[in-house]
Write a structure and sequence with these properties.
The complex is a heterodimer of chains A (283) and B (250).
Chain A (H helix, E strand, L loop, with lengths): L11 H31 L6 H8 L2 H41 L6 H16 L2 H11 L12 H26 L3 H9 L4 H31 L11 H12 L3 H32 L6
Helix pairs in contact in A: 3-4, 3-6, 3-8, 3-9, 3-10, 4-6, 5-6, 6-8, 7-8, 8-10, 9-10
Chain B lengths: L4 E12 L2 E12 L3 E5 L6 H8 L7 E6 L2 E2 L8 H4 L2 E4 L11 H11 L5 H14 L15 H13 L5 E5 L7 H16 L3 E5 L3 H7 L2 E6 L2 E6 L1 H6 L4 H15 L1
Parallel strand pairs in B: 3-8, 3-9, 6-7, 7-8
Antiparallel strand pairs in B: 1-2, 1-4, 4-5, 9-10
Helix pairs in contact in B: 3-4, 3-5, 5-6
The chains are: A mainly alpha (283), B alpha/beta (250).
Amino acid sequence: MSDGPAEATLTRRQAYEKARRRRGIIIASTSTIIVVVALIVLVPMAPRWDRVRQSFFNWEIFKDSFPRLLDAFWLNIQIFLWSLPLIFVLSLLVAVARNTRSPALFPLRAAAVIYTDVFRGIPVILAIFLIGFGVPGLFDSRTWSNPLIWGTVALVLSYSAYVSEVFRAGIESIHESQRAAARSLGMTARQTMTAVILPQAMRRVVPPLMNSVVSLQKDVALVSLIGPVEILRQAGIDKAIYANFTPYVAAACIFLALTIPCTRLADWLMAREQARTGGTAVA
Amino acid sequence: MSDDLILSLRGIRKAFGDNTVLDGIDLDVARGDAVTLIGASGSGKSTLLRCVNLLEPIDDGVILFDGADVAEPGLDPDPVRRRIGMVFQSFNLFPHMKVVDNVAIGPRKVLKRPKDEARDAARELLARLDLEDRADAFPDQLSGGQQQRVAIARSLAMGPDIMLLDEITSALDPELVGEVLAVVRDLKSEGLTIVMATHEMNFARDISDRVCFLHNGQILESGPPEQIFGEPTETRTRDFLHRVLDAGRM
């Protein structure tokens, strides 16, 4: 993107476009400044602003609690990092299972349908409760009663049900003619799936998958409800110690530091896919 | 003659729901011959080709390919398909693979050739079709005519006994039709057996050993091109040819 031609050489159309662009920038900046100033001026004018600031935005408590929260957040990241590949593999298997056509595989297809129906129909939090409190009861040994394991399992099962639908939509978006071309070469159904259909489907589902990845980062916090001291629970503990809500704000900042870049990346990927497959934007 | 038949169709029937698309097709194709199917759209040409390649199961009839009935229910279609090449109207190249890999994928996956060997063979084949400089491009960087030639190369890479060409120039801009037809002409002169559906009547007249006119899922008339184009016996063949040739003259 180099600068446009010098002022003197602009055509009337280019000069008009340039003036329009400049006008757009001025309007956008003015309205942004007005909104920001209004927030800074008006919010503190609320009658109980001082009390809210004391209990949510206490800088001393923020500084004090932040390192502990960051430590606890490491557990969120660990759970996230274990879950992600498991979700990826399980959901891909479920999606492929639902796309099989052989009559012999009917039980597999049926199991995949029931699984996705059940886990998409249950709130994630309920799945965590049921699996986190229920399954450890099956074992004598305490090693198997670790809530981290079962919390992760519940997350993986819930998320895989959603993500498998994303994969399935991706697989089904590949035109039947691609399958016909592969089969006409003598490739088997399996070869067609792995060499022709899946590689194309994967590219299409990356942007929607990124949205699931961002949600997963947040939903890891739900595992705290069955025990593990991750960031949300640590924030709760600190809130009780200081009798102040600032640790929650600090926790929110830590989440945002991770989720905002991921969201931007997802948007960028989606825009790139749009540019490749869709038309150009309309003025 | 009959001992040299590579493909014999007897009483092929195919319906999609209540819509009968093929209504008792008999057709013999001798080794090395070029047989052309002509007829209005919806007359069943494409479906017939897809049935021969077992992409569509037939409802009734016999498909004798090299002496064996390949329409036998329960028969594994993959070994049959690898000997039958098919080229589609809309190319159907694999967009995520380079041109050379599009051509090499069949031999690699189906014939289990090592990757390098399959690619070398693919490059040779592309060179024969004047496409060697496009080998490392992706399909969407090619013109329609080039894409269709790659699709032909992809089929040829399997060393098929017969090629089915399903209106392979219908999706091309007029100035690109010639380069694709030239390839087909070469294949025919090399002795490859070809069954094709086409709207290119001059080409059909030129290259075919036999022309079949399909109407409502039946072969109404078939014979050497001079006869079908010169003195068709059926009124409906005459009407069809008039319509097509008049449109071409405009």
